[in-house]
């Protein structure tokens, strides 16, 4: 149900800027959403899609620019203010309390000022809204027992009950089956035809072409295509605009690959409520080589890393390290065999904040007896080894006894490098190694990885930062929907090829 020509836009954003710690995430970004349409925002990770919509939803406050909803200028400072203005956002990571039922989550979201006072009242309105919008939701079920698709429906119903006339969905089909995705996107179309306005943040052109009316493309925090009719945009246009015309390729190709260090054959793992499925993944990684895996987040990268490290079981396939099958080996045994990790979150999975730098550096070698037995550690030796690492890796402001929590992001990453690039390294899995770092720290991390590889190690680089993949890798693979969908020598990578695979239409 389109509004007449000249009617106010559902959502208007002009000249939006937003920086975090001095780094610009949005630069003069613009977006116009009309009532009665499904409007896609497309771009690779870090393009600014989610940041722009988080500004619209009141999660972030813009540094500058103009915003309006239905023609009325707004300056939102919280999601509650956005909900009051009629805009609701369903985030990639749902805002639901797992120990509560769906009805209890809705009751919590409505707040104390609502006329709905009891879980029974909330259950009644959830059931009614569910029937009205055609999304089946059981209000009495606990969120922890719901599938991803069911949680998503619960979140949408909650947002609609909070008064959303504008619905923003961030990568809503990332971990859904094809049938679940079609059901959700058909709902979005139906909702827009009833007079609502829907924003779909995505990187999948097939979804854009099949279900959206207009498309906006973002790159590096800027709007590079502003609200073009989907019928006027080709797949090649989307691929080129997502990635840009220029890619920084690694300085030199791999002239003489060494022996195969890591071979993965037919690796598959079933999806669960909390993870993406992996589909028949296979690749070889040679000594002295960096194989970069590019992809938009949520396409199985975390799951692949967990399977390679032994943190998740695989359902089929094999993982061979130096010719030895480690598919069923415990994580500690894989480490002893030479497999090391720079995780995507340095503090969540790599370091223990409360422990000293010396303790963090020794964590992985203590079990082998490097610093004495389990009941009597040689603390002096640990501190001496830590002092050497602090000097070798230029860990600024660090002492062996200093807690890791007091380190900056760059220096914390250097502690990880000092530990993981140590003796016995054969294969390094580097997952987004420069995420959140400044330019100087980024270059230090990348140089350290290059030196380790030049010394004979192999590196599997997994990153959502396309330029990081291109600047380091000898070969580039693309991961999409739990599988590797293409692989080329870095020098043969073109914007059209990689953009097409990232968008899921090649």
From TrEMBL:
Pfam families hit by this protein: ABC_tran (PF00005)
Keywords linked to the UniProt accession: ATP-binding, Nucleotide-binding
Signal sequence coordinates: none
One Gene Ontology molecular-function label: ATP binding
InterPro entries, alphabetized: AAA+_ATPase (IPR003593), ABC_carbohydrate_import_ATPase (IPR050107), ABC_transporter-like_ATP-bd (IPR003439), ABC_transporter-like_CS (IPR017871), P-loop_NTPase (IPR027417)
Family annotation (Gene3D superfamilies): P-loop containing nucleotide triphosphate hydrolases (3.40.50.300)
Domain ABC transporter: 11-245, 262-506
Similarity-based family: Belongs to the ABC transporter superfamily.
Protein name as catalogued: ABC transporter ATP-binding protein
């Amino acid at each position: 149900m389109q509004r007449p020509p000249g009617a106010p836009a559902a959502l208007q954003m002009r000249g939006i800027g937003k920086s975090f710690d001095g780094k610009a995430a949005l630069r003069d970004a613009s977006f116009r959403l009309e009532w009665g349409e499904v409007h896609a925002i497309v771009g690779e990770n870090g393009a600014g899609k989610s940041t722009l919509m988080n500004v619209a939803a009141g999660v972030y406050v813009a540094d500058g620019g103009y915003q309006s909803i239905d023609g009325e200028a707004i300056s939102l400072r919280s999601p509650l203010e956005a909900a009051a203005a009629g805009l609701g956002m369903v985030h990639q990571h749902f805002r639901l309390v797992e120990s509560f039922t769906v009805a209890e989550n809705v009751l919590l979201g409505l707040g104390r000022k609502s006329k709905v006072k009891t879980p029974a009242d909330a259950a009644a309105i959830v059931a009614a809204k569910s029937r009205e919008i055609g999304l089946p939701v059981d209000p009495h079920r606990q969120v922890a027992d719901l599938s991803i698709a069911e949680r998503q429906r619960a979140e949408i119903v909650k947002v609609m009950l909070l008064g959303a006339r504008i619905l923003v969905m961030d990568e809503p089909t990332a971990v859904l089956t094809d049938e679940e995705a079609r059901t959700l996107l058909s709902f979005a179309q139906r909702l827009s035809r009833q007079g609502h306005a829907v924003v779909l943040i995505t990187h999948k052109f097939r979804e854009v072409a099949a279900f959206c009316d207009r498309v906006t493309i973002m790159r590096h925090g800027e709007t590079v295509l502003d609200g073009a009719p989907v019928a006027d945009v080709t797949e090649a246009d989307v691929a080129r605009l997502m990635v840009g015309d220029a890619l920084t390729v690694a300085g030199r190709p791999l002239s003489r690959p060494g022996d195969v260090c890591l071979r993965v054959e037919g690796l598959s793992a079933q999806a669960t409520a909390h993870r993406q499925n992996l589909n028949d993944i296979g690749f070889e990684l040679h000594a002295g080589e960096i194989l970069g895996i590019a992809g938009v987040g949520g396409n199985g990268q975390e799951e692949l890393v967990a399977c390679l490290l032994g943190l998740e079981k695989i359902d089929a396939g094999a993982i061979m390290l130096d010719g030895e099958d480690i598919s069923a080996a415990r994580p500690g045994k894989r480490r002893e065999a030479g497999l090391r990790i720079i995780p995507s979150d340095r503090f969540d999975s790599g370091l223990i904040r409360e422990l000293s730098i010396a303790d963090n550096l020794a964590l992985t070698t203590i079990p082998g007896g490097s610093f004495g037995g389990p009941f009597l550690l040689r603390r002096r030796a640990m501190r001496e080894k830590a002092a050497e690492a602090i000097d070798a890796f230029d860990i600024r402001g660090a002492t062996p006894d200093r807690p890791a929590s007091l380190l900056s992001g760059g220096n914390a990453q250097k502690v990880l490098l000092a530990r993981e690039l140590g003796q016995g390294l054969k294969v390094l899995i580097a997952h987004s190694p420069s995420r959140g770092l400044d330019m100087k720290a980024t270059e230090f991390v990348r140089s350290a990885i290059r030196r380790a590889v030049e010394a004979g190690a192999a590196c599997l680089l997994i990153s959502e930062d396309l330029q990081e993949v291109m600047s380091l890798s000898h070969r580039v693979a693309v991961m999409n929907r739990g599988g590797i969908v293409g692989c080329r020598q870095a020098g043969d990578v073109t914007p059209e090829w990689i953009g097409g695979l990232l968008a899921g239409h090649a």
